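Lab meeting prep.
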Amino acid sequence: MKHILLLGLAALGAAACRDGSAELPASHARAAAGVEVRADSLFSVVPVEGTIVARHRAEISTRLMARVTEVAVEIGARVRAGQPLIRLGLDDVAASRAKAVAAGNAARAARDEAARHAARMDTLYAQDAVAAVQRDQARLGLTQAESHLAMAEAAVSEVETAAGYARIVAPFDGVVVARFTDPGDLSAPGQPLLVVEGAGAREAVLALPADLAMGLAVGDTLTVTTRFGETTAAPIRAIAGAADPLTRTVEARVAVPNTWPTGVSATGLVPAGRRLGVRIPTAAVIRRGQLTGVNVIAGDRAVLRWVRLGRTVGDQVEVLSGLEAGERILP
């Protein structure tokens, strides 16, 4: 008879579990009687999407139209400031330099000849052997020759400067994160060839709604999370002084850990005032896969109720729906 009674109780317990409720022992109900859900003044936050970027990032390009002869790095390579990255062919530059140097030599010879002629005219004018107009024409010829020489020398300098662009080096210590060219490609002025990111500081770039940005300043802290579940308290490093006229948003840059990968999305929680809400101990939450619930006391029974949770602060979690203030739950 005793075994039959125990089996009956087990069957009753199983039935209670299936409908989400269970009868509480008197001692348990008395212990749970004091755990009351209360309304509290909570910070309201608005999630704002952004992207993790390196604080130092450079798109490497050139000012030359030239053939790429060497790319010394691959994606993922670590580079040092001043390290050669790309070399460009100098055939066209060398031809232009030779032409400019030849023009410069001719202009210099013409200037020297004009200077000698002007000196002779000065001597003859002093001896009353030539008219003043002839002396003035000689001086004008010298001035023009000097002007032509200056332009030729500037052309040589420009070509030599351009030759310096054929050797492209890393602007700072970092990592190559993108490569858009190979040997044999033709580069164009302003065309990105490589992208180098600094290996140090990272930040999240957030587009804040203009009304929320008004209450923020440099040094304020926002909670930032990634889709990988990483969370950090991120101080605002910079914030735009005006909204973008097209998006009506204000750009803010917040510092995040250096270990966070660039290019991934991030969510910043921006304060938006206070509101009434309820929070419960995180220990009271029951998790079943993707579902979250709590045991709500109803009379002498505990009923499992599914709830939707919000932010977790310390050992408390906000309940967005499914639970009202004044109800009692099992701890």
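Slide two material, second protein:
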Amino acid sequence: MMSARTEADCLLDQGALYKSRVLLRLDHDAPIFAGFKAGAFSLYYGDEPIFHFDLEGRWQRAYLDGIHYLKALDTTVRAIDRVREGSNLVLRRRTLGYAEVSDLDQQIRQVALDLIDRLSADRLLRVDPQGESLRLDSETLRDFLERVVLWDAATWFAQRERYLATYPTTPFQPPDGINRVVLQASLGRSRPSTFDRESSNAYQPRSASEFEKHAKDVLRLWGVRIRQARAAYLSGSDILHQPPRDVCAYLSSIARMFPINGASEDATGLGSTAGAARLEGVHAFLEDFPETRPAQEDWKAYRTLHLKRVYLGLESGDPSIRKGYGKQWANQTLVEWVRDVKSADIHISLLLLDDAGGREHAVPHQEATVALLKQLDLGPGDVVALLDGSEVLEGHHHLSNLTAMSHVEHREAQAALRNALRPFQSERKVKVVPYSLDKQWM
């Protein structure tokens, strides 16, 4: 009876993303798939373990003993496990401690060392894909594995130091922030913030020259991993409140230095290593909407400089609830902000706290929020993301008279809000998605 084919076997024939690949066999051991795809390299040992690396040899994702591990540019590692809660399977994540990270780093490094030894001893049977152009030769494979081996404890420590020098504070990222290049045009913040957990130290906007230096540091930090990036993110909830000339200066620097669709073909200076993938554009974030705002001509200038999406943080459509979060803007003002942004053909993602009213104000929060959303000029390409306030606020609510919802109450409130938005979703073609930090892979 023929044994079942493993994931590694299938990828040799069906892994179209891998433009260069090979299957390696040793006696009765699980087959080993090795392959290069755009900006990345993968190893599959049968169905598991599985390892993914960037082209500098830094591991990014691993699947071991049924658990996913994700290593960020700052060298922290999150473990994501599927656990059963009643009849449901849910994702649970945790950040590994220093010793756990060190052990995992060494374990993955040892995988590369062992495979180098097997290749050097010529103990592995090669199975090549159909088509000579898809063949991954042993010398190229060995050279890359040696690159992986260079990432020992000292090298990872140096990477951590580079990250901390590049990002003095931890920037806020909206949902769906996977593979987004973060650029900090400012440190601290000048306005009350619900979503941005960055230090509330004095606001320090970077000058054009300071930002350009920072962007170069970010580019060095990413290295050839920039080929995996999907968009650039201009962080800070204050950025789009700055004078338009300053915003244009930031966006111009990004367009010069990063491979953005429609920008110069070799903006990064990384040559062909960066040219295989290009960013869709620049994203930014806002959560306060004063009456003074950029003119429509300014938004059009931002769009010309590749600003493609703006995230808007919204606690509630009920002004009395928003005041508890330190926000004083009027609903009509948000309507006008959205109108101006959309007039420049810039997409909007609305970050909405679905439980902002707590138990006491759940009904007025839902009703006022749905009414406000219906006034906004949202359409195809726009998103409404429903966020759990207890996650965003790390368990600390701004309303002194607010009773946080239980897990069951929150799920019911979210379901009720989604149901109320269904006509809005079907008529406007706006995407409405629930979001949990448990589901975000950094």
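Talking points for slide two:
Residues 169-439 form a domain with the pyruvate-formate lyase- activating enzyme fold (CATH 3.80.30.20).
Residues 265-276 have pLDDT under 50 and may be disordered.
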